[in-house]
Amino acid sequence: MIRRTLKTLLFLLAAIPLGGIGLAALIAGWVLVATLAITPLAVPALVAFRVAIGGVARLDATLANRLLGTSVQPVATSPGPSGFWNSGLNVLRDTAFWRQQVYVALRLSLGFGLAVAEWSLVAGSLGLISLPIWYRWTRYTQVVPGVYVRTLGHALLWVPVGLAGLALAVALTRPIASGWRFLARTLLGDMGTMSLRAHALAYGMLNVLLVVVWAATTRGYFWPEWTMIGLGLPLAVHASLVFGRRALTRHALIAAGAAVFFTLVWAVTSRGYFWPLWPMLGFALSLGTHAIFEVTRRGERISELETTRAGAVEQQETDLERIERDLHDGAQARLVALGMSLGMAEQKLASDPAAAQQLLAEARQGTREALEELRSLARGIHPPVLTDRGLEAAISAIADRTPLRVDVTVDVPRRPPRAVETAAYFVVVEALANAGKHAHAQHVTVDVRTEDGELVAEVVDDGAGGANAEGSGLRGLARRVEALDGTLAVTSPAGGPTTIRAMIPCAS
Predict the structure, then answer these.
(1) Residue 143 belongs to some domain of the structure
(2) Reported pTM
(3) Which pLDDT belongs to residue 111?
(4) Is the same domain home to 313 and 402?
């Protein structure tokens, strides 16, 4: 129990330096972002701000894990689409970024106050317990306003008070530790609406505490209104990010929250010229621009889906024609020849047994060849090993049958959806076939991995290069991949190397 109490006290004490660091990061980050908001430099400023807040959150999470027994690992970056502008939008869309800011703000406000109160209670209690030892070294020892200790008897009377205060301080460490564990798990972890509930609870508790402090002191100017307004904006942003299902909805909710914020600031200050009108107009303009962008993007997306669907249907028809042609020219022709050989053997069975035996041997060979062609055709439709053992085994099997030196690396922790797995397999199969037939390659590397919610299949050969991305084989692969909302990139300069890279969304 003593060890747990000391850990909690140390965690509270850490709020003093960490609160200062967090306050510096919040002020510097938002001032820098606001100053550069109309320039492209706002993007690197946002990214740097994200790393700073994530670093403070990680540092505090490490303390919480060791001192309070939590197990949270907050991220310091915001995942999402790559690109210069997307890196900034990823930060703004990242709910973890906003939750970490809330946690840092609570650490430097509520945490700082609790640290001062708890350590003051501990220090004061220890001072009263040891009062009989040190009271004589001071001329007048004042324990409370108007009460002085001048004798040993008076000092001994305060020892039970000190023991009670110390017991109270120890008892308070348990609910304080539980509360901070809850805040750390909900704001630094990933618990959806639980983090919003914790945020709202902390907002309410802090403001109630400040109102009590105001009521117990001057009762003059109602200064807690500034914390209510100032901390209400991050709460509104957090709620917008949790309940807004789409980017445009989140934008509208955040703009509404900011408009209310500026209106409240105007209401508690001069109430003269209604200056919040200008930021409201700015919000309306940005929201209208966003709406136009979303409508345009949705139209482009619909057109793209129609194109990829048409390509997928066309590719399916091409595959069916190929299967029909292979059956007609291959297995079907061999089965017809097999039937003829069996008929001739039946006719010669009595008159010429040796010739009948020869015909039966040819029929048996034709049966084996027909079965092999049917197996090859089945592998071209969907190989059984892919269904039974997954992508790594299927690619390794096709690599073993390829007369080239092939290095295969597959790093896929979980099996992707079947359609995605099949598309990636045939990308590798077609790339290996092209490397052997057209590029005259000697060495091929196959790398299949998951990356940002996508399955990436990359095949690189050391052949002559010059592959035609609009050829029938590669174009068919592109249609297959695009039908799954993916992309196929072919890089093949003259002289090589040739790189075929398919990126297929596989998040489920």
Answers:
(1) no
(2) 0.46
(3) 84
(4) no
Q: Which residues are paired to 175 by β-bridges? A: none
Could you list the residue range(s) of the whole structural domain that residue 453 is in? 389-505
* Chain position carrying tokens 């990061």: 25
Q: And the tokens for 335?
A: 């089965």
User: Is the sign of the CA dihedral 187, 191, 197, 198 positive or negative?
Assistant: negative
Looking at the structure, do residues 367 and 412 belong to the same domain, yes or no?
no
For the beta carbon of residue 211, count every other beta carbon within 10 angstroms: 15
Q: Can you spell out the DSSP letters for 92-139?
A: HH-HHHHHHHHHHHHIIIIIHHHHHHHHHHHHHHHHHHTHHHHGGGSS
Q: What angle do CA 245, 78, 257 make, to 5 degrees?
A: 45
Domain assignment present for residue 487? The answer is yes
Q: Which of 362, 381, 400 is the last residue before a domain boundary?
A: 381
Q: What are the φ and ψ backbone dihedral angles of 218, each rounded to 5 degrees?
A: -80, -35
Q: Is residue 453 assigned to a domain?
A: yes
Kindly give the parts of the chain with pLDDT less than 50.
Answer: 508
Same domain, 347 and 404: no
Comparing CA positions, the residue from 199, 225, 178, 206 lying closest to residue 101 is 199
Number of domains forming the structure of the chain: 2
302 vs 306: CA distance, rounded Å: 6
Chain-centroid distance of CA 397 in Å reads 34
pLDDT tens track for 51-90: 999 999 889 888 888 888 888 888 888 877 778 888 888 8
Q: Which residues contact 72 (CB under 8 A, 6 or more apart)?
A: 61, 64, 65, 184, 185, 188, 189
Measure Cα distances from 209 to 218, 298, 337, 472 in Å: 15, 48, 93, 72
The answer to whether residues 394 and 367 belong to one domain is no
Angle at 476 between CA 471 and CA 477, to 5 degrees: 105
- What residues have CB less than 8 Å from 200, skipping those under 6 apart? 235
Q: Cα separations (Å) of 354 from 348, 370, 492?
A: 9, 24, 58
For the CA atoms of 16, 22, 27, 31, the dihedral, rounded to the nearest 10 degrees, stands at: 160
In 3D space, the residue among 331, 336, 401 whose CA is nearest the CA of residue 372 turns out to be 331
- Please give the C-alpha separations between residue 308 and each of 184, 319, 429, 477, 478, in angstroms, as whole numbers: 45, 16, 22, 12, 9
| Rg of the chain taking only CA atoms, in angstroms | 36
The strand pairing partners of 494, in sequence order, are none
Contact between 452 and 79 under an 8 Å Cβ cutoff? The reply is yes
The reported pLDDT for the residue numbered 350 is 66
State residue 52's pLDDT score.
92
* 325 and 350 assigned to the same domain: yes
Q: Are residues 377 and 395 in the same domain?
A: no
- Of 381, 400, 425, the domain-final residue: 381
